[in-house]
Design a protein that fits this description.
Elements lengths: L5 E5 L1 H5 L12 E2 L2 E2 H4 L2 H6 L1 H17 L4 H12 L5 E5 L5 H5 L4 E3 L2 E8 L5 E3 L18 E5 L9 H10 L2 E5 L11 H7 L3 E6 L11 E4 L2 H10 L2
Parallel strand pairs: 1-4, 1-9, 4-5, 9-10, 10-11
Antiparallel strand pairs: 2-3, 6-7, 6-8
Helix pairs in contact: 5-9, 7-8
Length: 230
């Protein structure tokens, strides 16, 4: 049997079908806030209270949202596929993949249910509000930050992702704009190392010319049948 490793990258489009907004849908505004104010290092350093308030507002929305058929199809595929590895990397900070039943999800941009101490670097799970004047439970420093990768920060798990890209045989991108790097460059790496590349999106991504196959439409409608037949 020929082993085939699968690399699945998901972006904001897959979560949008569960009712979560994306900042690119609203002319640079995310939940009526300027992205640079709530999702950049500069914005956090300038006004940490505003940033914490924003994610405190966003957290219950994300935690109460439910996975759609695309999330469920990926989780089911992971469980039954036995011809190689299925690596799931998401740009999303919500937990919809976990709710659908996916295992070992690599959240390259962080998670909404975590904060991190900028002093001791400990990651703290939290389902409730966090404020800039709360002490770290480990070192007591007043340095808590949402465990979200802001613009200007390096995404998480990049070494692991690079290895996965070099050894995957099929690369699948779902609900991604092809704009945000380094994720927009993953398809190039996978293709360079010989992977067959697929895009499932509402419209062509900006890097669409790197995809061997493009399936346009709602991923909740198009992805389940595709994964069922791999």
């Amino acid at each position: 049997m020929i082993m085939k490793n699968i690399f699945i990258l998901t972006g904001a489009g897959i979560s949008a079908q569960s009712g979560l907004k994306t900042f690119r849908d609203t002319n640079g505004l995310w939940e009526n806030f300027k992205v640079e104010d709530v999702a950049s290092i500069e914005g956090f350093e300038k006004n940490p209270k505003l940033v914490h308030d924003f994610y405190n507002h966003l957290r219950p929305q994300m935690l109460s949202s439910m996975p759609n058929k695309a999330h469920l199809a990926i989780a089911d595929f992971q469980k039954r596929y036995s011809d190689g590895e299925v690596n799931l990397i998401t740009q999303n900070v919500d937990l919809l993949h976990e709710k659908a039943g996916s295992r070992e999800v690599f959240h390259m941009h962080g998670r909404i249910d975590e904060c991190v101490c900028q002093h001791c670097q400990k990651v703290i799970k939290t389902l409730s509000d966090v404020s800039f004047d709360m002490p770290c439970p480990y070192c007591r420093a007043l340095k808590l930050k949402p465990n979200i990768v802001f613009f200007g920060q390096m995404p998480m798990f990049m070494d692991e992702i690079e290895k996965m890209l070099r050894t995957c045989h099929i690369f699948i991108a779902v609900g991604t704009s092809g704009v945000v790097y380094p994720a927009a460059g993953f398809v190039m790496t996978a293709k360079y190392y010989g992977a067959e590349t697929y895009l499932f999106n509402l419209e062509k991504a900006e890097n669409n010319f790197y995809f061997d196959h493009q399936v346009l439409g709602k991923a909740s409608e198009t992805l389940p049948d595709f994964l069922e037949n791999i």
